[in-house]
């Protein structure tokens, strides 16, 4: 097990320079999720218009994996339809289960593939995506 | 104390994790088990198992003797006046909940006070929150000093004539500090309150004498002191236990049962509904034998040495913050490295074969008081060595470098 499999440069870059960190002035939905076993927490805010996620911001506290994953997720879903966003969430979940998934132009996300070799850390990586699903799924019903 | 001979008795320690010899520094979460405990549980199942207190047959008698023999050992180990004052429970959490649900709900009324501290484990906080909500009693906290400890002056100011219960941990699972239980018991009794002690982190590491401490209830877990998981005990003052109602009904705890009314057995059986944790108790008995053979004073001394060594080595690492007092500390060092999240620290250490805990340690209010979301914790037991602490320190320095200078 090599550390570099987990902590790729792009992950550390998102951790140290998170994208979309902060709060929206006027959000459509806000989701707060925490991981009660370890104390990681995220607040995700989404701006929704006509079935599209037009903006996304997050605040939170946690390890490099949970915070970089939140940063990547917010970048990835901006401008996407609900269906596209949920499909990304689904593919991310498969990635965490060790499946070979491609994210086309979103290769940053693929950098998190190493997490599946560290079972205790998978829940860190999925926290932000779970918040996304919690925010979007009620919109699609 | 021959550390090599002790390590030989713990089969699990002799393995590699991620290509490195295992360094197990998470005993405050759960200790490892010596061969004698593993064998005792296996022998019990292979030779002596049946249900207890009911079988007329020979195996039933042997199982009962083994179970009650373990109760005698626990009583002797914590210097309880009699084995009837030892209730077997699933662990510290269940024991504290028993006191809260049975004793506290019966005695607390609106306007009464329950006094605890902000350093308590959730298991010694939430049961009291629930009692306060159910009875209208007020939950009060003895404030913490800047190093996380409490003072007797503050305790005296917090405990009043309205206080019915004082419940405090003997040793903090985060700060490692030892609370002045004997003096707190005296303070509580002076105001007519009872004192409940969370002994989860003290019982594995030091001599405990519930009579000398003069405590009313004392709870601890087997799995942190070389015993199996799923077994622990509650010691209670006889006059209090005898007036407490059970909180679980059925099985082993009944005396007479009629269609509309039933009566309970004497203590401790009335608190042990259902088929008890027989194999767990047998394993706990074997763990006590093991610890007594080494001697609690020797264990105490070894761990004090290790803890001081770890405190000194870790406090020499730049950018590393240790929480809790330097002195009067038992068995653990809780810390953070600047700009590296404790989960990341624990993962890096794991790749080097070193097991530590990272997270809130079931102490979310204390984390908030420390102004952190989580911490890393290295905890020690009889089988740890100063060499292992050196490996910890080296790995922490590497972790710092790894996160400080970028990753390839």
TrEMBL record, chain A:
TM region positions: none
What Pfam families does the entry give? NifU_N
Q: Which InterPro entries does this chain map to?
A: NIF_FeS_clus_asmbl_NifU_N (IPR002871)
List, in alphabetical order, the Gene Ontology terms for molecular function in this entry.
iron ion binding; iron-sulfur cluster binding
GO terms in the biological process aspect are:
iron-sulfur cluster assembly
Where the record annotates domain NIF system FeS cluster assembly NifU N-terminal, the positions are 7-124
Q: Which family does it belong to?
A: Belongs to the NifU family.
The record's Gene3D superfamilies line, in alphabetical order, gives: 3.90.1010.10
Protein name per Swiss-Prot or TrEMBL: Iron-sulfur cluster assembly scaffold protein NifU
Automatic annotation (TrEMBL), chain B:
Q: Which cofactor does it need?
A: pyridoxal 5'-phosphate
State the reactions this protein catalyses. Answer: (sulfur carrier)-H + L-cysteine = (sulfur carrier)-SH + L-alanine
Class in the EC hierarchy, top level: transferase
Record CDD domains = SufS_like
Its Gene Ontology biological processes?
Answer: cysteine metabolic process
Pfam families attached to this UniProt entry: Aminotran_5
The alphabetical list of record keywords is: Pyridoxal phosphate, Transferase
Q: Which InterPro entries does this UniProt record tie to the protein?
A: Aminotrans_V_dom, Aminotrans_V_PyrdxlP_BS, Cys_dSase_SufS, Cysteine_dSase, PyrdxlP-dep_Trfase, PyrdxlP-dep_Trfase_major, PyrdxlP-dep_Trfase_small
Q: Does the keyword Transferase apply?
A: yes
Q: Which PROSITE patterns match?
A: AA_TRANSFER_CLASS_5
The UniProt record lists the Aminotransferase class V domain at 23-392
Question: What are the coiled-coil residue ranges?
Answer: none
Q: Which Gene3D superfamilies match?
A: Aspartate Aminotransferase, domain 1 (3.90.1150.10), Type I PLP-dependent aspartate aminotransferase-like (Major domain) (3.40.640.10)
Enzyme Commission number, as recorded:
2.8.1.7
Tell me yes or no: is Transferase among this UniProt entry's keywords: yes
GO molecular function terms listed in the Swiss-Prot or TrEMBL record: cysteine desulfurase activity; pyridoxal phosphate binding
Report the function annotation for this chain: Catalyzes the removal of elemental sulfur and selenium atoms from L-cysteine, L-cystine, L-selenocysteine, and L-selenocystine to produce L-alanine.
Q: Which family does it belong to?
A: Belongs to the class-V pyridoxal-phosphate-dependent aminotransferase family. Csd subfamily.
Put simply, this protein is called Cysteine desulfurase
Instruction: Name its species.
Output: Paenibacillus montaniterrae
